[in-house]
Amino acid sequence: MTVNTVSLGSPFRWLAEAFAMCRAHTRVLFGAASMLFLVALLPSVAQILVETALQPSVAVRGLIQAVFTVLALLVFPPVVGGFYRIVHALHEGRPARASDLFALFQDGPAARRLIVTNLIFVTVSLLVIIGLAAVVGGQELFEFLRAAAVLKPGATELPPLPDGMLVLISVLMIVALLIMTAQGLATAEVAVTGRSPLAAAAAGFKLALRNLGTLLLFYLPVAVIAFVGFMILALVAALVGGMLSLASPLLAALVLVPLGMLFVLVLYALMFTFFYHAWRDTLGAGVAVPPEHQIAV
């Protein structure tokens, strides 16, 4: 498979195509994004409920957290793969339903490939973060993190930042964007074509590294625009919430929580649809999709 070099305008075209697809298939994609968000949220909510009901010791709480972390690692990747297959079906002009999000749970091999793909990126992320922290921050950074972890509620001052902290944060942001792009491409590759996780991950990293400069020139203005938009939205939400809370705190929550969820749904739908178009224009160019990896009509 050839890994393409993308032009400077390609990411902006993928984003425009993602907007167009979400607008053309609003019900299906936002319905699927809603269920995807619920699946992502469910392990955390279930963990809180269990801990609240049992009031466990520190050791048991750690075990509960481990169980629900494993559950999330097993459940979420096949659902993400289902979203990519929905987008692929819509792009090909075939009908799809939001409930097709869960279709991969009936395809054991495909679900396992997606779980392994996700584990590869989780492992790489942890190794990179730990490695960068050790190289750039050294012992001072670990001392800072240890001191920050034991801060008491209500503390007004953080421990002094170690040397190299700003450099570390900048490098981590670039690495995070690189890994996120590679994972989006690789997951789409595995979900749609059934390629092996290791080969798809390698292709995703290769493409992201080859086009790192182009991707950063895209992510930077998008991140700035998104940050400004979020700050405006947060300011408006704070003003509206403040006025509503004068009448009732519950009323403020009933208005602001759905708005926050709507923001997340839009982000989910656009992000995964964007990565699908990025995959299709690069790794997926000219790739035939096996019939068993298509959503049945």
What does this structure look like?
It is a single chain. This protein is mostly helical and 297 residues long. The chain has one domain (10-293). Helix content is 78%, strand content 0%. It is built from eight helices and no strands. It has helices spanning 10-24, 26-54, 58-91, 108-149, 165-193, 197-210, 212-247, 249-281. Helix 4 runs antiparallel to helix 5 (165-193), helix 4 (108-149) crosses helix 6 and helix 5 packs across helix 8. 25% of the residues are buried. The mean pLDDT is 83.
Uncertain regions spanning at least 5 consecutive residues: none
Number of domains as seen in the coordinates: 1
Strand content: under 5%
Radius of gyration: 21 Å
Helix content: over 70%
SS-derived structural category? mainly alpha
Query: What is the molecular shape?
Result: globular
Total helices: the number is 8
Mean pLDDT: 83
Assembly classification: single chain
How would you spell out the order of helices and strands? HHHHHHHH
Q: How many E-type strands?
A: 0
Largest sheet: none
Taking the alpha carbons of the first and last residues, their distance comes to 29 Å
